[in-house]
Amino acid sequence: MPESSHLPPQRIRVIAICLVLHDDHLLMAEGYDSVKGEVFYRALGGEVEFGEAAADAAARELREELGRDVEVRDLLGVIENRFTLEGERGHEIVFEYLATFAPGQEPPHLAPMPAVEGDASFTARWLPLAEVLAGTHRAYPEGVEDRLAAWVNRR
Question: What tens digit of pLDDT does each residue of 53-78 get?
């Protein structure tokens, strides 16, 4: 039997993510890739379900992860994201949105926020928008700084 039959099937995922903007800060999930030895940040969100609009998926995912409602504002872009995480290749089509918390759902301060994805928990941290734009933090998907800068310039 060929060894490749033991590998999980490769597929392209369709996901929707939100960069939540509040007080000139962006809320992003903090991650660590032990193979690369890299701390990185990524917008929150997840897979678009069959029949679901991408913007609705992004709002649903943030509600599930944070327990708070967001208002999806602007589409930053739709990108093809081919990446490696923990030595494993991934491939996604990403709908990347900017969002704000719904009225009354804003956090009282910019402290790290606990978040949940299925059975796993993670921390979402507030990064200053200026630092993300300057590339101070390793942010994914690739080019997020450029898409944010284009959005800032349109305002």
Answer: 999 999 999 999 999 999 999 999 99
Instruction: Say if residues 127 and 25 touch (Cβ distance below 8 Å).
Output: yes
> What pTM did the predictor assign?
0.88
Reading phi first (left if > 0) and then psi (alpha if -120 to 50, else beta), residue 45 is in: left
| pLDDT per position as a tens digit, 100-144 | 999 999 998 999 999 998 888 999 999 999 999 999 999 999 999
Structure tokens at 34: 């032990």
CA 15 → CA 73, 78, 81, 92, 110, distances in Å?
A: 17, 10, 10, 7, 26
For 86-119, strand residue ranges (E) read 88-101, 113-117
Residue 123, CA distances (Å) to 28, 29, 31, 43 in order: 8, 6, 8, 12
Q: HSE of 154 in the Cβ direction (CA atoms, 13 Å)?
A: 9
What tokens does 13 get? 């995922």
Q: CB-hemisphere CA count at 13 Å for 150?
A: 11
